[in-house]
Amino acid sequence: MFACSLSTAYGSNCAFRCSRGYHLVGSNSIQCGDANNDGVGEWSADFPVCNEVICIPSLSAPSNGSINCTDFSQLDSQCHFSCDNGFFLRGNDIITCNDDDNNGEGEWSSNPATCKEITCQVQNSPVNGSISCTRGVLYGSACFFECNPGYSLVGYDTVLCGEPNSDGAGQWSIEEEPPTCISNECSPES
Fold this sequence. Notes:
Layout: E1 2-4, E2 13-16, E3 22-25, E4 29-33, E5 42-43, E6 49-52, E7 65-69, E8 78-83, E9 87-90, E10 94-98, E11 107-108, E12 114-117, E13 129-133, E14 142-147, E15 151-154, E16 158-164, E17 170-172, E18 180-183
Antiparallel strand pairs: 1-2, 2-4, 3-6, 4-5, 7-8, 8-10, 9-12, 10-11, 13-14, 14-16, 15-18, 16-17
């Protein structure tokens, strides 16, 4: 947008500014004069242009996740990050394209988020027993406890690696003491 004091007449001053989302490249004001004293009017500088403010780098979906942006890399665009099932979001789930210093170079409000695989802590085998897990310590894994012959299981026999806590660590479906294997005893004859 621009406004000139005397249209294009000698002595006119023109002021320029850009709409939000654009950055002025060139002088914000120019004057019509006769610098060569030849009777031909000339502007004191080239007309400026308005370049779109964009954030660089362009964002892409994190591995094992997705991204949804309102206006790609344009000023004020918001990008929403999410992760696939079994993965935990590290970083901000929403970032915004800003031009806080008004230099025409957009910057993201923070680094792009990443997706980390959800894992649970290792489950130990009970003494005189064993454990087998469908997917190790990964999200969705089921672990089954068994005892050796001559022993009986006390406690739960199965746990599942499920949703993460605020730190991204998966949580086992049962948080109580792990199961144990006790020796089978024959009762004395009476």
